[in-house]
């Protein structure tokens, strides 16, 4: 078996495969057809828009989605033939809904100047608006009216190529991130009639898509004891038969998509097409999170690219073509929340790739170099602390001082040990006191969702920061 000679034709084909994916990197003039990429910019250390366009091309991105109509980004994308999807920030939705003139003004200022040189595909009005309960009254009922006003403006200005949509997270469904069985999924009662039904009517009437943010990562992480990792990574590992439909599922993403489809059908709009506004896998995360690593991220996104290139659709919608946008172009250092939030990138902020990826899906999985072995696919069980982090940069003393004041202002006795005479007063520096305070705060409040972040000044560690008689507590240590 080991020594079967490779026939010359096969060698030629193999060379052809390599040549094909080698050339799309160099040949920037061709319109690529790979997965779309979300170009998120919540960071203070990422490359320029112009360099970002090169990096999008190098990964074989078929289109790009941006979170606002940033002029510098739109200028960099002009003339590149990369289709662009633009998002309307949540904050301006009420204004655009209240006044047709305001909506038209927005179109004139933010869209029209770029249309000559940029192919804008989708205008997405709001980002996961229905996940933010603080804007339930002000904004939820205004999404569709804002879309209608924008649509009228586009038509009046003879722009017919831009479709409108809005992006919704899986929490639009009663069952949330892991709706099993998919066929039983329904939209939340607080939005189904009031928002989703008119939205679906609008999407069908304009032949647009329901844009969902679908992250098998979260569904798997929250159910890591019952859902095999391979099932979330498109690597088999399990099958699931929906008792309601008899359909067999081979991966978690398909279950999530069909759940959204089932919920739409129950509102009488099963005909509306689906698009994936965000999906992906984190390449890193905190010690108390699991499965965020470069190996899993590479496997997920490579399999996704190869799969979507075949347009498989889903078990309930076989063959359905679906626009898909991977999250995200960069690791974004200013995203708050747990560590995974800052680790979705295809690239590090210095522009080097986290792992190789061909978003066109043409490069076969075996043609990639080996990946580092994952170390956090099961929960970490030891003690964890939260300390000041330099991330290789010079710290801003004012910011450290502000964070220290904030941490010490929470809870009772959070900073007693760093007061004069306290066992952690020495060394008497803002940095040492901040480390103590961050940990003290986080250990008290992590149970109720506090994260070890402090505006990118803190990070988790498994190395005990205690020194001398100064003890840093940990829930397990
Ligand atoms: C969806 O739109 C099509 C075409 O306009 C229309 O024929 C159909 O009745 C609509 N479906 C629903 C459920 O409204
Ligand atoms: C692993 O899954 C269990 C339930 O299956 C959940 O309670 C736990 O929080 C998960 N662990 C992580 C790190 O997400
Ligand atoms: C330092 O942090 C303060 C408070 O967050 C901020 O106002 C200031 O602009 C920062 N300075 C620099 C140089 O980044
Ligand atoms: C601090 O202590 C007071 C009095 O015991 C208590 O009422 C309060 O809830 C405590 N605050 C926190 C954040 O633990």
UniProtKB/TrEMBL annotation:
Domain X8: 384-472
Gene Ontology CC annotations of this record: plasma membrane; plasmodesma; side of membrane
Membrane topology: Lipid-anchor; GPI-anchor
Listed GO biological process terms: carbohydrate metabolic process
Signal peptide per UniProt: 1-28
Entry EC no(s): 3.2.1.39
GO molecular function, one term: glucan endo-1,3-beta-D-glucosidase activity
Places the protein is found: Cell membrane
PROSITE patterns in UniProt: GLYCOSYL_HYDROL_F17 (PS00587)
Gene3D superfamilies in the cross-refs: 1.20.58.1040, Glycosidases
Keywords linked to the UniProt accession: Cell membrane, Disulfide bond, Glycoprotein, Glycosidase, GPI-anchor, Hydrolase, Lipoprotein, Membrane, Signal
Catalytic activity field: Hydrolysis of (1->3)-beta-D-glucosidic linkages in (1->3)-beta-D-glucans
Matches recorded under PANTHER family: GLUCAN ENDO-1,3-BETA-GLUCOSIDASE BG1-RELATED-RELATED
Family: Belongs to the glycosyl hydrolase 17 family.
The name this protein goes by in its record: glucan endo-1,3-beta-D-glucosidase
Organism: Brachypodium distachyon (Purple false brome)
């Amino acid at each position: 078996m080991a020594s079967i000679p490779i026939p010359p034709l096969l060698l030629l084909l193999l060379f052809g495969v390599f040549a094909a994916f080698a050339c799309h990197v160099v040949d920037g003039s061709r319109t690529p057809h790979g997965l779309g990429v979300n170009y998120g910019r919540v960071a203070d250390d990422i490359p320029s828009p112009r360099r970002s366009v090169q990096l999008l091309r190098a990964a074989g991105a078929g289109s790009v989605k941006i979170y606002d109509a940033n002029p510098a980004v739109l200028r960099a994308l002009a003339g590149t033939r990369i289709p662009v999807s633009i998002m309307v920030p949540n904050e301006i939705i009420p204004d655009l809904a209240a006044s047709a003139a305001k909506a038209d003004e927005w179109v004139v200022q933010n869209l029209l100047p770029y249309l000559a040189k940029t192919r804008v595909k989708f205008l997405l009005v709001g980002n996961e608006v229905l996940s933010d309960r603080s804007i339930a009254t002000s904004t939820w009922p205004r999404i569709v009216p804002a879309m209608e006003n924008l649509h009228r403006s586009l038509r009046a200005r003879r722009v017919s190529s831009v479709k409108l949509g809005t992006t919704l997270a899986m929490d639009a469904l009663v069952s949330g991130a892991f709706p099993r069985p998919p066929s039983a999924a329904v939209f939340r009662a607080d939005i189904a009639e009031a928002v989703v039904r008119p939205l679906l009517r609008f999407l069908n009437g304009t032949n647009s898509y329901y844009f969902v943010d679908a992250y098998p990562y979260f569904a798997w992480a929250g159910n890591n004891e019952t859902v095999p990792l391979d099932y979330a990574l498109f690597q088999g590992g399990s099958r699931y038969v929906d008792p309601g439909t008899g359909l067999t599922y081979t991966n978690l993403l398909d279950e999530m998509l069909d759940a959204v489809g089932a919920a739409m059908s129950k509102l009488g709009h099963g005909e509306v097409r689906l698009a994936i506004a965000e999906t992906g896998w984190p390449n890193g995360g905190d010690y108390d999170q699991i499965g965020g690593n470069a190996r899993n991220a590479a496997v997920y996104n490579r399999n996704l690219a190869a799969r979507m290139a075949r347009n498989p659709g889903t078990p309930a919608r076989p063959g359905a073509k679906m626009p898909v946008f991977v999250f995200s172009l960069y690791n974004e250092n200013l995203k708050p929340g747990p560590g995974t939030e800052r680790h979705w990138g295809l690239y590090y902020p210095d522009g080097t790739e986290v792992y190789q990826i061909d978003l066109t899906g043409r490069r076969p999985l075996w043609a990639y170099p080996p990946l580092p072995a994952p170390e956090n696919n099961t929960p970490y069980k030891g003690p964890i602390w939260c300390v000041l982090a330099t991330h290789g940069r010079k710290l801003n003393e004012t910011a450290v001082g502000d964070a220290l004041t904030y941490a010490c202002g929470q809870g009772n006795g959070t900073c007693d040990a760093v007061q004069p005479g306290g066992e952690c007063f020495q060394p008497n520096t803002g940095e040492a006191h901040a480390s103590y305070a961050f940990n003290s705060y986080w250990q008290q409040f992590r149970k109720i969702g506090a994260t070890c972040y402090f505006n990118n000044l803190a990070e988790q560690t498994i190395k005990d920061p205690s020194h001398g008689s100064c003890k840093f507590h940990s829930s397990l240590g």
